[in-house]
Every structure is written in C-alpha cells, then in structure tokens.
Give the backbone structure.
Amino acid sequence: KQEVTQIPAALSVPEGENLVLNCSFTDSAIYNLQWFRQDPGKGLTSLLLIQSSQREQTSGRLNASLDKSSGRSTLYIAASQPGDSATYLCAVYSGGGADGLTFGKGTHLIIQP
Amino acid sequence: DTEVTQTPKHLVMGMTNKKSLKCEQHMGHRAMYWYKQKAKKPPELMFVYSYEKLSINESVPSRFSPECPNSSLLNLHLHALQPEDSALYLCASSQDPVLRAGEKLFFGSGTQLSVL
C-alpha cells in the first residue's frame, strides 16, 4: 500500500525567504505526482503535476522536482510572500482511477510579513 | 470555465435531518468525485462517478448516498448523520477517470458540514 509522508508538518518563515517542502512515498511505481495548495476551509488547487518520466516542473516562483527511484519530491518556493501561506499537499498516482491517488497530510506554511 | 461549484458552503444539521450537497461542473469532464476531509488530514475518497457508473468506497456508510442527475451534476444526499461525520466535503472532477496521463483534479471550494 502506497504511503506518502510530508516533512515538515508545519513551517513558519519570514517573507522573502526561499523554502523547500518535502514529500516521500514508499512505492516508486507511480505514474505522476501532484502538488496542491489548500487555503483554510477551501478546496484544493493543483499547482504542479510531474509525470514519472519527468524530473521537474516549474510555474512562476514554484519548482517541483521528482526523484522516482528514491521516492522523493520537493517543492521549492522562491522569494516567499504572505499570500503563499496555506497548506501544501503532495499526492502520488499509482494507477486504478482515483482510488490510486494517495495524498500526504500536508505541510502547513505560514509566511510572516 | 474551470470551476467546480459546490453548494452550500456551510451546513449545520441535526442527526435526524435529511439534507443534500450539490456539485456542478461545466468543463465537460467525464468523472466526478466526492471526498471527505477532516481537519489536518488528507482528503479521503468516498465516491467516483464516471461513464454513468458509480464506484463506492466500501468503508463509506449508507447514510451517504450519491446521485448523478446528469453528467454535470453530482449530489450527495445525507440522512441520519452522526457527529463524527462533521467534516469538509469536497467535490472534484477530471476529464477522464484514468489519471495516469496526467489528468488534473479540479476541486470545488467544499461544504463545511457540522452535525449536532
């Protein structure tokens, strides 16, 4: 059974810092990995999706990397802003429809103004 | 239009009430989902509706019943809920139920449900 772990569970940094969120998964047989953002009491917004054949994806100040063989992904946020405060969830897709999408518990990020 | 619309945003109900959550998407997506999310936990898949077929997570109690009136709507009927059912209920959709080609999930804003 796939398990997804996100470290740290919570992070608080001053505005302007670059930061890294970590995601690890136990079964490397995945099709893709997604990073989501969730604001309190709201739905999830997909930020980046990396296919298993890719090493990284970039969108603006966000860069996600994938090392499938070691079961790791990182989300790099450059020049953090207070608006980046949210919970970031990692999800890996192992096949079989939505049943095969396994979420981590998320990293709760606070950017201090 | 890349939105999944959920109503209501908030719902408080007693254990003897019957209520419904509504979800709508106009992206032509062929799969729709209901998730349940407790505080500080990841979303848990409850139901999948795709190609006129409903797939149920066997751990979901029968007091939750989904209904799909058409390909754009997926409702969740609630009856005789328990206080432990209080959670954020999220609806999502995707172009195809098979996600391996990189299909993204589009989530609604959720319904925050409190059962008294």
In short: The longest strand of chain B covers residues 18-25.
